[in-house]
Specification:
homodimer; about 525 residues; alpha/beta; FAD/NAD(P)-binding domain; Flavocytochrome C3, Chain A, domain 1; nine-stranded mixed beta sheet; five-stranded antiparallel beta sheet; 16 helices; 20 strands; about 35% helix; globular; flavoprotein (chains A, B); oxidoreductase activity (chains A, B); Flavocytochrome c (chains A, B); oxidoreductase (chains A, B)
Chain lengths: ~525, ~525
């Protein structure tokens, strides 16, 4: 078994050498090094692990205060999951809501999050998102992020439309401008292919540096890159003011995700980039950081089996077919969920079908007005493969192409349209998202399959983004965290577009406080 | 705030002295000591943390192989939660089932556990319980535990009756005989008031000892005994063959249980003994043990607000009023759950009522045959306070005493009895537990309130009871665990009476392998 690779197996595969020996000393020894036992190769004010939304927000904020900041990214490309994100950001009480007459409040935002999170969200963290959401939005605008200023998007589980969108409908709309500014900041650097391996502490337990490997080559083919990859050259870096963990979640960690949910087979696809593993999180647990709600793994109910990874389906469905159309069970031709319910509710509804019949992927479709809110580039990208989006002239064509009973399918569309007219949907879809489907077509059709998307649990932070220690129930000196590596904010299930809010708000706060 | 006690606060309270300084060095420094830096005061083969079911099973098994075993118990009394447990133990395919014609199987047992556990149970651990359940039963009989051999009990969520009961209907029926034998074993000792503080490792990361405090005085009045209690005298003990963690769960840890479920107020009662805190678990995380499914906290749906702690209600309801009677919502007089559903289903049903009206505790009642399966001592104990069990001559008396609409209540009993006759219960109560209620009375009535009862998550162990390390995905040399401190076996919700099976099977396995 690859996950129990012996030294002999490693020898067979030619993996043992100086690198392997260095690795084993990093991984198997007592946790964390003492600064007295190391020689620092470089000295920085602030070191940040991860170059996504949270890492860049922390980096820019810390840099603005005059700090010499180093951001470490283990992959060859920057931005982790952030850069492949759909780009929606929940900002309660934002100016576009004001302009378009949408009433929102801190209480409404928190109630929506708590409902999806099954009530186990940490309230003080949610409150911070509401209180600092507009600060985060302004911070992004100052740093060159371009938002659509004509409307907010209404994502599943939110009572009102409150999600700001970038003009390019992508997380890259945040990462690119933030990265450009960060790399221009005085004395700051973003180091690619540089892997965090361990912490360096002083005698009082304060985090004062990190051990890393430069020229790291992440290897997607290994069962566990964190445990098996021996590439790179070791360096020890001093972080005078502290370290920020912004390393993201673990949806691609075959070992740790299966420990939390043994139903996830190793073969299952994920919306996440290949580097989304638990390594940094687990190292922080060794320091005494509290593990919080680590077993809640969110599946994206808007993903498609007809493309790899995150893909384009999430945006084409969320802002397209789910809003302007319906989803049906191909076995019956009937609807089976509120297409805009929270993620857990929808993923559970899809899983129910797929557990009964593993290849009966539900379909979602709408008529040709469905992509009108999206930028043409995104729609083009979605259509390009010819495999993701099916174009059908009629309901009969959908029925024959996807193996759905035609009469039942027609009846479902008719019934939905009646609900739209009566302003009362049988599955409780929000009135603001009820649009008649033109029964004459043409139609755009996408198959659905839930994919592991977000790991809700992680490190416990306080409202200053400080990581709390189980040894004292107080902050670990010199250690901050933000984004998906933290736990508690989202409870059992994160609402769509709250991730960016979480990452930017707490990234910014980490940068302010460090 | 008590949970953020400063040094100044401690000074005010007269808590700072030599003890406090020793504590701060134990808690705030880097984790685990190296054997080169310590001097061992005593030397043992095996050291076990915790004196409940798992600890004693491990201790007896290790002792039988000729080991010099020390069991550490931080409290003044032994047995932790085990000794206040109701004493039921799931043993699939046991001889009493055979004698009474109950068909059971490994598959059925696993399916029941997986259903309650929402499918996230670790299958290899469940499988071990089924495979070794009878070994554990035989081990207990050999060690003097006396079981009722005329019938098995049918607990909520189990498809069939498979729970063996001790003749005294209490966990003490296991603890007392096991303790007696253990204390007679050559070279073995059980040390009360001895608190585990930290691990001692060798250069390769093997666990070779522990740091403890003798003459420890657990203090229930502290917000966190683990973090604030400075009592005791430090000793360092060598464990030549290893350490077994059998320290139980954390239902009484106000800090850690609230991090996992922020809805649990500090004031809430629990079925657990006061010492059920997370200290040992968190220390193991610092060694690199994987945290698994730590946020699933089970509430006992059979607890009563009319007594403290675990009390007698669990047994009086489980084997009494729930089996021979019904539970109703006092506001409506109607039933609201299958009285023998799994714990999560029932606790959620009760919480739904209590969230709508916090003082509307549901009631359960049955006629006077309801306690016939119980020993007279237990019934007497339950009746003793005069507060827990209400005796009512008629349905009208129940209605007036508990504020229930009388007509609706009569109708509920009538409807239930019709279901019994038709062998079809409206809430799906098992046919084998359908008994007509004598409408003439008299009745025994108990009010219900869910209490935190079991923490499902914890350390990841393999089927040899070895604790796995996140640094290697292999066992931590010299470290074993069993019982509630481990995670994964029960998934999201443990079925009643599987705890003892879990503790004895894995305690025994730890003892066999160490």
């Amino acid at each position: 078994m690859a996950n129990q690779m012996s030294r002999r197996d490693m020898l067979k595969m030619g993996m043992v050498g100086a690198g392997a020996l260095a690795l084993s000393s990093v991984n198997a020894s007592a946790s964390a090094l003492n600064e007295k036992d190391v020689k620092f190769d470089e000295e920085w004010d602030v070191i940040i692990i991860g170059s996504g939304f949270a890492g860049l927000a922390a980096g820019l904020t810390a840099a603005k205060k005059g700090n010499k900041v180093l951001i470490l990214e283990k992959m060859g490309r920057i931005g982790g999951n952030s850069v492949i994100n759909g780009g929606g950001m929940s900002v309660p009480m934002n100016p576009v809501q004001a302009k378009t007459g949408i009433k929102d409040s801190k209480e409404l935002f928190m109630a929506d999050c708590l409902k999806a999170g099954l009530g186990i969200n940490h309230p003080e963290l949610l409150e911070t998102l509401a209180d600092r959401g507009m600060d985060a939005f302004n911070f992004l605008v100052e740093n060159g992020v371009q938002f659509k200023m004509d409307h907010c998007a209404h994502f599943g589980g939110h009572t009102v439309a409150r999600s700001m969108l970038t003009t390019n409908d992508s997380g890259s709309g945040y990462i690119q401008p933030m990265l450009e500014r960060f790399e221009k900041a005085d004395g700051c650097k973003l180091a690619r292919r540089t892997k965090f391996d361990d912490f360096v502490l002083d005698d009082k337990g304060r985090v004062v540096g990190v051990v890393v490997r430069e020229e790291y080559k992440f290897d997607d083919k290994l069962y566990s890159d964190d445990l098996e990859n021996t590439s790179g050259t070791k360096k020890t870096l001093k972080a005078k003011k502290g370290v920020v963990l912004a390393a993201g979640g673990f949806c691609r960690d075959k070992i740790y995700r299966k420990l939390q949910d043994p139903r996830i087979p190793d073969s299952v696809d994920s919306t996440n980039h290949a580097g989304a593993t638990a390594g940094a999180l687990l190292k922080a647990f060794e320091l005494g950081a509290y593990p919080v709600q680590v077993d809640w793994i969110q599946f994206g109910p808007w993903a498609s089996p007809d493309e790899k990874g995150f893909g384009t389906a999430p945006i084409l469905t969320q802002q397209g077919t789910f809003k302007y159309g319906i989803a049906v069970d191909v076995r019956t031709g009937k609807r089976f969920m509120n297409e805009l319910a929270d993620r857990k509710t929808r993923a559970d509804a899809e899983f129910k079908i797929l557990r009964e019949k593993p290849d009966a992927f539900p379909i979602t479709f709408a008529d040709d007005k469905c992509f009108r809110d999206l930028s043409p580039e995104v729609v083009q990208k979605g259509m390009a493969s010819g495999k993701l989006v099916g174009v059908c002239k009629s309901i009969d064509e959908i029925a024959s192409k996807y193996g759905v009973p035609a009469d039942a399918l027609k009846e479902s569309v008719k019934k939905y349209n009646e609900g739209v007219k009566a302003k009362k949907d049988e599955f409780g879809k929000q009135e603001s998202a009820l649009f008649e489907i033109n029964e004459a077509g043409p139609f755009y059709v996408i198959r659905l399959s839930p994919k592991p998307h977000h790991t809700m649990g992680g490190l416990k932070i306080n409202t200053k983004a400080q990581v709390l220690s189980s040894k004292t129930n107080k902050p670990i000196d010199g250690l901050y965290a933000a984004g998906e590596i933290t736990g508690g904010t989202h409870g059992a299930s994160r609402l769509g577009t709250v991730a960016i809010t979480d990452c930017i708000v707490f990234g910014m706060i980490a940068g302010e406080n460090i």
